[in-house]
Automatic annotation (TrEMBL):
GO molecular function terms noted in the UniProt entry: D-threo-aldose 1-dehydrogenase activity
Keyword DNA damage: no
Pfam families, alphabetized: Aldo_ket_red (PF00248)
Keyword Aminoacyl-tRNA synthetase found: no
Domain NADP-dependent oxidoreductase residue range list: 14-314
Name this protein carries in UniProt: D-threo-aldose 1-dehydrogenase
Signal sequence region: none
Lineage of origin: Bacteria, Bacillati, Actinomycetota, Actinomycetes, Micrococcales
Protein species of origin: Agromyces flavus
Sequence intervals crossing the membrane: none
InterPro entries: AKR, FDH-like, NAD(P)_OxRdtase_dom_sf, NADP_OxRdtase_dom
Amino acid sequence: MLSRTLRSGAALTEIGFGAAQIGNLYRPTGDDEARAAVDTAWDAGIRYFDTAPHYGLGLSERRLGAALRTRPRDEYVLSTKVGRLLVPNDAPEGAMDDQGFAVPATVRREWDLSRDGIRRSVDESLERLGLDRIDIAYLHDPDEHGPQAHAEAIPALIELREEGVVGAVGAGMNQSAMPAEFVRRHDVDVIMLAGRYTLLEQGALDDLLPAAVERGVRIVAAAVYNSGLLSKPRPTADAQYDYAPAPAEVLARANAIADVCEAFGLTLPEAAIAFPLRHPAVASVVVGLRTAGQVEGTVERYAADIPEDFWRSLSERGLVRDA
């Protein structure tokens, strides 16, 4: 599998393992199933793994760290996130997490973008992971905390990078405007952009991507299936888009793209994985993975041979914007 390098020197494989699902996103996943997914990814050549304290209230970090512990540490890149601390919870016995993860609510998330909070978050992630360092630390979804993110959180991450505690720093968000400001105003290395530069949506061409190219910042594209809308050869009538029912016009556009895919003997998910990697700023596409079978399917999609005429056809029909 090919890799692309950050200015920190970290080499990200063009497919990254998104570990939210092994944190029991939406439904339980067994330890053995989660371990098999990571092992299969490794065997397929994937060497970039992304997690967060938010994913399963620490379960994702613990499982991922355990699965990677016997692997040579210099042979993979690991990213996690900061901004939400996990603190003791006084919820009733048996209460479950209320933010999409099938885990007991023994702890709760608490926003803390202060310098001390960022440092504590990194320390606690290292403990859960059982690893000696974090290669990339992203500020996680600071949408409602812009002033503090600029004034405290991002500078705290840069300080940790300068101390050698983390290798590279940035932010992970579902919008492109605020990350573009981080790129313009701070010495960040990489942005994880979820859902805003995909086969279906290219709004990041208006702000984040030009800024990234200008400043030498790399982009990790996540949520490239747009909430599952592009994960099948044809979107279903009840498909989700941006975590809500897909509007009719969005469904129509996805079906129009699927028409072109079929004309070239391709599928929507193959094109969805390939599209972001065409932009010079994009270093990796991170796909959420739960099982060994999902890993194998993703690697097969990544390997699809997509001719330049296909992209030209989409552009001529006004279905994608040129980078």
